[in-house]
Specification:
Elements lengths: L7 H9 L3 E5 L10 H9 L12 E6 L6 H4 L14
Antiparallel strand pairs: 1-2
Bound molecules: zinc ion.
The site of zinc ion (ZN) has 8 residues, from loops.
């Protein structure tokens, strides 16, 4: 039995940090007849099958573009807000 409770202190810490996203390359097939490439070019989207594994090339903050490797322990300058106390 699991009880899910909100934890305001953790939420506050996350909100002050970076918002990490991963940049990845998605293989969309070969040649001119692959419908995945045509669909992605037309819609700007690609839907993965469940369980698909992708390679992440870079992890960075969506808000300030800081790379995870050098900025993981720092607050996000774009998301920083005045701290209570
Ligand atoms: Zn950031």
């Amino acid at each position: 039995m699991q009880a899910q409770r909100s934890r305001p202190a953790q939420v506050r810490r996350v909100m002050a940090g970076h918002r990490w996203v991963g940049a990845a390359l998605v293989e969309l097939g070969l040649g001119a007849n692959d419908r995945r490439a045509e669909h992605a070019a037309r819609t700007g989207r690609h839907v993965f099958s469940p369980g698909t594994r992708i390679d992440v090339l870079e992890v960075y903050c969506a808000d300030c573009r800081a790379p995870y490797t050098t900025s993981a322990d720092e607050p996000c300058p774009k998301r920083a807000s005045s701290r209570a106390g």
